[in-house]
Amino acid sequence: MLRLIVGRELASAFPEKYTDLADAKVALEVEGLSGEGFHDARLVAHHGEIVGLAGIVGNGQSEFLRALAGLRPSTGRIVLDGVPLRGRDLVRSTAYMPADRHRESLLPAMSVRENAAVSALPSFAGGGVVSGERERVGVDAELAKLSVKTASRETNVMALSGGNQQKVVMARALLAAPRLLLADEPTQGVDVGARSEIYTIMRDIAASGVPVVVVSSDAKELEGFCDRVVVFSRGHVVAELTGEDVTEEKITGSVVNATTLRSDAPAAKKAVPPKPAPSTRRVPMAERLRDLAKGDYAPSIVLALVILALGGYTFAHNVRFLAPFNVTSLLTLLTALAFISLGQTIVIMTGGIDLSVGPLAGLLVVIASFFVTDGHSPLLVALAFVIMLVVAAGSGVLNGVLIRFGGFTAVAATLTLYIGLQGVSLLLRPFQGGFISTSVTDAITATVGFVPVAFLVAVVVAVGLELALRFTAWGRGLRAAGSNEGSARRLGVKVNRVHVLAYLGCAVLTFCGALLLMAQIGVGDPTQGVSYTLSSITAVVLGGASLAGGRGSFIGTLLGAALIQEVLNATTFLNLSQSWQYFFQGILILVAAAIYTRVRRRTPALV
Description:
Elements: H1 2-6, E1 26-35, E2 38-46, E3 50-54, H2 61-68, E4 75-80, E5 83-84, H3 87-93, E6 94-97, H4 101-104, H5 112-117, E7 125-126, E8 129-130, H6 132-145, H7 162-175, E9 180-184, H8 192-207, E10 212-215, H9 219-225, E11 228-233, E12 236-242, H10 248-257, H11 285-293, H12 298-317, H13 324-349, H14 357-371, H15 378-404, H16 410-428, E13 433-435, H17 438-444, E14 447-448, E15 451-452, H18 453-471, H19 473-483, H20 485-490, H21 495-521, E16 523-524, H22 532-542, H23 554-573, H24 579-601
Parallel strand pairs: 3-10, 3-11, 6-9, 9-10
Antiparallel strand pairs: 1-2, 1-4, 4-5, 7-8, 11-12, 13-16, 14-15
Helix pairs in contact: 6-7, 7-8, 9-10, 12-23, 13-18, 13-21, 13-22, 13-23, 14-15, 14-16, 14-21, 15-16, 15-21, 17-21, 18-19, 19-21, 22-23, 23-24
């Protein structure tokens, strides 16, 4: 069967092992290395030797390998060719081949040449400029040495078979001229013929003097081409096998018979009495705060506190900040941004973005300036609102169709519409004109006390969308499509419909925001809506939504919009120049993105 699959006889899948270890110099010494998932690990590798790391998946061997590559924090001592190495020195001295080449190694949009050369570009460069000829010669030589089967060096790397993709990863490692090669499951997902070739290549690498450390869950594979095998269990090294002891039976026996308990904490902490059972243990306040910080509502709490702090500071310097007239104006301006930002949140939840909301709002105001004016009948005014809604809905559906069925990216489709809508606005109204009916603007800006009714409507809409996001099939489908489209589709979510409806919903909410904008400026102005594109995205980011999709909060977006509008208003009362409005917004975005990203990437410690 192997002969028929590979097309040739395979007398042995594994090359001859290194036999003269007695005189070989020690290349790698690891003493007392500890980190997340492994503890007090020791390892020795000689020049010309292939060392295997064995154990059931999840017992610390892969984490240990990443620590050797300088990719995970660790404590202990790593000595390579007599020189202790840490941090960036490890990264520069080693070549690491991850187990999942598609997620962690290959650059899917790039060619075979670009993938192979990316780590070795400095060696092909002169004066900081890469020599194309030197790059091609170096890559071609390495691809030929590894027998990479590809139509051309310029072929997209994803067009290759799994075995040839792995060889490209190996070519990248070798072109970087490492002093240590680390490979995690190097034959995972490749056919039997490519496996044999990879074994031979790695043996040749070791024979050239570069020590090789390999993680494999296949004990037969470790027996066949490793000179030494270190067995991991529960994060500890439990056995070391060399020479004739490197057999599948002894490797498996060492794994199965290991009795070492996992220890992820220093010895001094082991004397602490065990915690009560989860059913009775009181959750510490610090743990509760960490869980809260990782949730979707943590940004809302932070934003609310910042809004209160900024309001208190501004009021302390200028008591007119909380005057009823200013509060009414502030909330009216906020409402327009809030509606548009809520729509932007729907789109961003799917992993998309809508750059056309600003020009769309401006175009809708321009359309209103021809019909919603004094002297026109109520019927014509009502018809104008219908036309505005139809134009908005048509824009949203067009965006969704271009993205889901036209093959456009979200940025390309909505940027195209951004330009088109802005162009139509300028054609209809090259200059300001067409004053909006006072009776209409008064109705839109009506207040209860000093609070605009429209603002209360925006709050109700935000709460309603938040409840729908958490408790309805629409909300679950929206979050699923943004989190993992493939999984969502397999679960029965109609992903295309979810995306198109998201852009439609964004456009309808932009129509609501345009009504407030129309009432604020009171005249057809084609340029007034443009700024809402970036402001709406800023509000969503401040609200804690992930631009990658899948998570966010409409309440957070509402508070993000409130903070933006408060900053714009406060700079006036603090006698700051207009440039400070942009400084504050930029600082808020950077701080929010840094905090939210850091908190959400943290994983709970092992217990």
